[in-house]
Amino acid sequence: MKITIISVGKIKEKFYKEAIAEFKKRLSSYCTLSLIEVADEKAPENISDKEMEQIKDKEGGKILSKLDENSYVVVLHIQGKQLSSEDLSKKINDLALSGQSHITFIIGGSLGLSPDVVNKSNFKLSFSKMTFPHQLFKVILLEQIYRSFRIIRGEPYHK
Fold first, then answer.
1. Residue 74: is its pLDDT beyond 90?
2. FRET pair for 75, CA 20 to 30 Å: which of 7, 64, 67, 150?
């Protein structure tokens, strides 16, 4: 299976980079992992709604340009469906069993995702009603994907 994560913004902090590298290494036994970062747009401090939409549209265009048309697209969206770790592993396994060999997860920037990206998705997933920094969220997502593969294979993993 191929897993792609497209995210807005560059990871700068060393501790996030190290955590991402660790999960990338762990996941290499289960899937082909591709991490794609697209540049975020600069947002002024007192941003208008119109400027916010323009920024999300620009970032959305960058995301869509990296998207594989044959991939099953999951956007991380606060209004998406919340799943348990077991349910996420079942979803990944069901997709694989149905012949879907490529899943793309999309993490938006600090302002969220453009409607074009959300509308392109096959599934909207929410981890929480809380807001997380997108750098940290990439680590959380990678951990949950890793956990999912462990569950799928019946391998032990801390609950």
1. yes
2. 150
